[in-house]
Amino acid sequence: MTTPLPAAAEYVVVGGGTAGNVVAARLAESGREVLVLEAGPDFGPRGDAAWPADLVDATRLGRSHDWGYDSGDTYPWKVGFERARAIGGSSDMNGCTQTWGHRRDYDAWAEAGLTGWAADDLRPLFEEGARRMRVRRYLASELTPWQHAWYDAAPAVGMPRVATLNDLDENAGFAPEDVNIEDGVRVNTAFAYLDPARALPNLTIVGEALVDRVVVEGGRATGVVVVHRGQTRTVRAGTVVLAGGAYNSPTVLLRSGIGPAAQLAPLGIPIVQHLPGVGENLHDQPFLLMNWEGSARMTAEMDAARAAGWAPDEQAMGKAASSLESEAFDLHFLPYSPTHRGERTRWSIGTSALLPRSRGFVRLRSTDPEAKPIIDHRFLTDPEGADVRMLVDGVGILRELAASPDLAPLVGRELHPGPDTFTREALAAHLYANPDNYWHPVGTCRMGLADDPLAVVDARGRVHGIDGLRVADCAIMPRVPRATTAMPAVVVGENIARMLIEDAA
Prior knowledge:
Elements: E1 8-14, H1 18-29, E2 34-37, H2 53-56, H3 103-111, H4 119-132, E3 136-137, H5 145-153, E4 173-176, E5 178-179, E6 181-182, E7 185-186, H6 189-197, E8 203-206, E9 209-217, E10 220-228, E11 231-242, H7 245-255, E12 258-259, H8 261-264, E13 273-274, E14 280-282, E15 287-292, H9 296-308, E16 316-320, E17 331-341, E18 344-353, E19 360-363, E20 374-376, H10 386-402, H11 408-411, E21 414-416, H12 424-433, E22 469-471, H13 486-504
Parallel strand pairs: 1-2, 1-11, 2-8, 11-22, 12-13
Antiparallel strand pairs: 3-5, 4-16, 6-7, 9-10, 10-11, 14-19, 15-18, 15-21, 16-17, 17-18, 19-20
Helix pairs in contact: 1-6, 1-13, 4-13, 10-12
């Protein structure tokens, strides 16, 4: 959609992604004047013919309109860090799995002094987010044969079949997923939050509007510099809310002169506020996708399921504890239906270490807002090797499960990582040589108290030392929750929006 760029707005939300749309809609619904600036296109409301098929088709991961971020040459092979550059953000591209994590994830934030972020504070926001996102839970009877096989076998390794993954007080279990799917459509936050507010006269959404930097005058954010359809313009703002995600929110801050002075000076960026934590604390949950040969029986059953209709790639998930975890759980198990790579069909299940200890960073290459940043998660680099130990334990549980009498005839021979990795040492070596991610980056503008030298924002998302500037996305998370982060991102948006509305009253 083509919308003129206003000269000013009371609130400018930078990024029409998962969390940004929540903030924008909530502010607009409260009567505030809001401008959303999205670097990618605005395809309009749900049902508009402009929406690419892959972004609305819930049976597959979206791939179009990607920012093109990856690991560069920091790993033995290139790891893609897919993020959507379009209205809806990465809620356009994900697998639709909606998990909340565990109570201890959020209570730990509150115990560190971050008022308003305890599990009981957030539970109503999770419930409201799930309602708005049209989240439903698969019935066991709806699972495809591949999903059902793992779900049925899970109790053999101590994972009971449970009703939901989203009991904040529950630990190990295997359950059909909660998903934001309606009539086969991936319900992104543009559909769930922006669409009901699009008709409001106080909400403006502008696509193809890449924000270069925040304008700061006298210690206060007063606007943003925007590249819109080839022209660079300044939009004035009463309050600027950054919601570009864990990769883009810190780069906007850095180009604005807000960040580590030692990094900004060589790029010729004037120092506005020395905040050493901007771009640091990047982490994601390391992941390993295991593949099996399958069987004639499973192939026939899956072919029949597809012929009958709905057969998405993701439907069920397990959670369990590694040998390092005594508090709750720290592993996910994600069955993934057959994917075709050349002439080979692979039957898959992935495992992820949910509480990684490794930390990386996001840094600028140049002052060009289109230049891809340096993104280095430093996967599996924690000195104790805990992240690898978690994954090794996860693989061990899945191998035990795959060898169980009911499952073994269906999954067949393990192809990857394969028989050469059946010792813990060999498997660890394989993991170090083949890092991968779970697509849940967080932490690069993390919340913390004013006396924390690496904190970027306070508990209300306010950037330390700069008035009128907030961050409202997964970048503010001090530590990733034991979850897929789509619904936690919605909740961050809900909570920061609530605080903005309170502060404006």
